[in-house]
Design a protein that fits this description.
- There is one protein chain.
- This protein has a six-stranded mixed sheet.
- It has five helices and six strands.
- The protein has helices at 2-19, 24-35, 39-51, 59-77, 83-91, and strands at residues 97-104, 116-121, 124-132, 139-146, 160-172, 180-193.
């Protein structure tokens, strides 16, 4: 019986770890890495959090998942990861919820990076962001959002807006250039004003 208990104990620890959820404190641990654009440290830290919380469906897991993908794109821009390794990493999150950083929402006629705008594409409303590195030398992610329920766009212009939804697909620069790294296509998107 003792032997069976000794075998079950490590199994229970692994199972319990996968039932945990990402907390606000866990999320806050990653912010300094992202602010410094220490993409490798952010990637490693988010990878550990995501590996220990697979049954978590919270917004914090969605935010950390997005941070993992964004930091991997940053690593590609610095030559610390290949495009193929980036794609392999990001594809494991297809079908999962991503919650992006808040961006200022600008008018669809305006030009801007690290901002959000709503545009009409093929008769449908779509949200779009372009996320650059701090030096503005690489586009880490083009992000395209399609909506199941169309939001009231007028209420977002001039405000900080957080977007999210289900990661539907990923494209990687076919030329393996660092001018742009990836395109993320997000379905069933939502938009929320950040107060």
């Amino acid at each position: 019986m003792k032997r069976l208990a000794a075998l079950l104990f490590p199994f229970l620890i692994v199972v319990m770890a996968h039932c945990q959820v990402i907390t606000y404190e866990n999320f806050k641990e990653v912010i300094p890495f992202m602010q410094k654009q220490d993409f490798k440290a952010a990637f490693e830290h988010t990878g550990k959090l995501l590996g220990s919380t697979q049954n978590d469906s919270s917004d914090f897991r969605g935010i950390v998942t997005y941070m993992n993908i964004l930091s991997a794109a940053g690593m590609v821009s610095l030559g610390q990861m290949t495009h193929d390794a980036f794609k392999k990493n990001a594809q494991q999150y297809i079908g999962q919820t991503l919650v992006m950083s808040a961006h200022p929402c600008i008018d669809s006629a305006a030009n801007g990076s690290n901002s959000l705008k709503f545009v009409m594409r093929d008769g449908s409303l779509q949200g779009e962001t372009i996320t650059l590195n701090a030096r503005h030398t690489s586009i880490l992610c083009f992000e395209y959002y399609t909506f199941a329920n169309r939001p009231d766009v007028a209420g977002f212009i001039g405000k900080m807006v957080r977007m999210g939804g289900r990661l539907e697909s990923i494209e990687v620069n076919p030329n393996h250039s660092i001018i742009w790294i990836s395109r993320l296509h997000i379905a069933d998107a939502f938009a929320r004003v950040v107060e």
